[in-house]
Amino acid sequence: MIRRLTSDTLDTRRQTEVGTPEQRERVTHILHTVKHEGDAALFRWTETFDGVALDRDRLRVQGEEVKRAYAETSEEFVTALRGAAERIRVFHERQRRTSWWEAKDDGTILGQRYLPLASVGIYVPGGRAAYPSSVLMNAIPAKVAGVERITMVTPPEKGGSVHPAILVAADIAGVTEIYKVGGAQAVAALAYGTESIPRVDKIVGPGNIYVALAKQSVFGLVDIDMIAGPSEIVVLADETADPAFVAADLLSQAEHDPLASAVLVTTSTALADAVEEELKRQCQRLSRADIAAQSLRDYGAICVTDCLGEGIDVVNRLAPEHLELMVEDPWGVLGRITHAGAVFIGPYSPEPVGDYWAGPNHILPTNGTARFASPLSVDDFVKRSSLIAYSRQALERDAERIVTLAESEGLGGHAEAIRIRLDRREGESDE
């Protein structure tokens, strides 16, 4: 059911190239048609891929649809979602940055100014399941950052509706501009704009391979958050870990997708054997057992290491999206972890706590990119400007060195922009 690999052979990262040549060609064609035909192409592709005939009157979600969504969801669900939203909001409020500047005695003022992005597009996938938690994780940091216009796109269900849980989550997060369109065509609409959907400055949110390719293609025209890969978890455990806990947490990621990766790295052969048996037993009880079993078979692994230090080295090499520390001294191990999207510490911090409730963002770097990338945050929805104000005194002090550097690069115009100010100063002194 799950492979046994050594630390030398364990590597769950996928190829870095996204998609096949055929998929990339198809996405390029979709982007081109939406860019040049606007709404007409948007409606045509939606009917082709989703079987829904849209027009300008049906494209945008109306207030009555949101009210109906509340009526179609339980009060218990709405209460839980509001509680999660508040925790996410409180956590992300602490990430806010403030502009700053420093004035020196010579009249120089240097600083940095933070401003929110003007507009952001959030992609919310359809398909196997609705993920209202991801709506909160994308929209709330943007709201906290102060983004003025947040546009959400999501594929319509048969009949042209949007899953009620998605609409309730959007309403709780404060998103009011929602369009019933998905796939590469939705990304194109956000990037280029159409008659009905204004363009945005940044696109965030996960999607299928066509969405990932489309985001990759429009990057540069707009910003994007990341190219999200399949979900992944690594559990680092020693002999003190509960095998039932470990197996349950591995399955919590394996059930996401057949391409998801669930890996146990342990110093204990006895634990490895017990977890393998628990996986077989617990998987049978899952509603998504077939998906979980395929994920474990193709991308899951158990790696037994000679010592905890070797296990830590394996974890850092994998740079997992989610890392659980189920060892005797998890806080002692934490300082040696250098690459992980989110770290769950101790036996009572399972990954779903972070997915839904704790507050930190669950949109995390995948496929080993935690080596250089970070979770989605308020920082993703702001931009920085440097502030430079020189006085005449400061310019005269630094002019010679600036001119030297400019001329060393053959940029005479740069040097002249300094000299002309010195010459003007000399002329004023002569008078």
From TrEMBL:
Its EC number is 1.1.1.23. Residues 1-22 are annotated as: Disordered. The active site is at 321 (proton acceptor), 322 (proton acceptor). CDD domains: Histidinol_dh (cd06572). Pathway: Amino-acid biosynthesis; L-histidine biosynthesis; L-histidine from 5-phospho-alpha-D-ribose 1-diphosphate: step 9/9. Residues 10-22 have a biased composition (Basic and acidic residues). It is an enzyme of class 1 (oxidoreductase). It catalyses: L-histidinol + 2 NAD(+) + H2O = L-histidine + 2 NADH + 3 H(+). Binds 1 zinc ion per subunit. Substrate binds at residues 231, 253, 256, 322, 355, 409, 414. Its cofactor is Zn(2+). Zn(2+) binds at residues 253, 256, 355, 414. GO terms for biological process: L-histidine biosynthetic process. Keywords: Amino-acid biosynthesis, Histidine biosynthesis, Metal-binding, NAD, Oxidoreductase, Zinc. The keyword Thylakoid does not apply. NAD(+) binds at residues 123, 185, 208. GO terms for cellular component: cytosol. GO terms for molecular function: histidinol dehydrogenase activity; NAD binding; zinc ion binding. Pfam families: Histidinol_dh (PF00815). Belongs to the histidinol dehydrogenase family. Catalyzes the sequential NAD-dependent oxidations of L-histidinol to L-histidinaldehyde and then to L-histidine. This is Histidinol dehydrogenase. It comes from Novibacillus thermophilus.
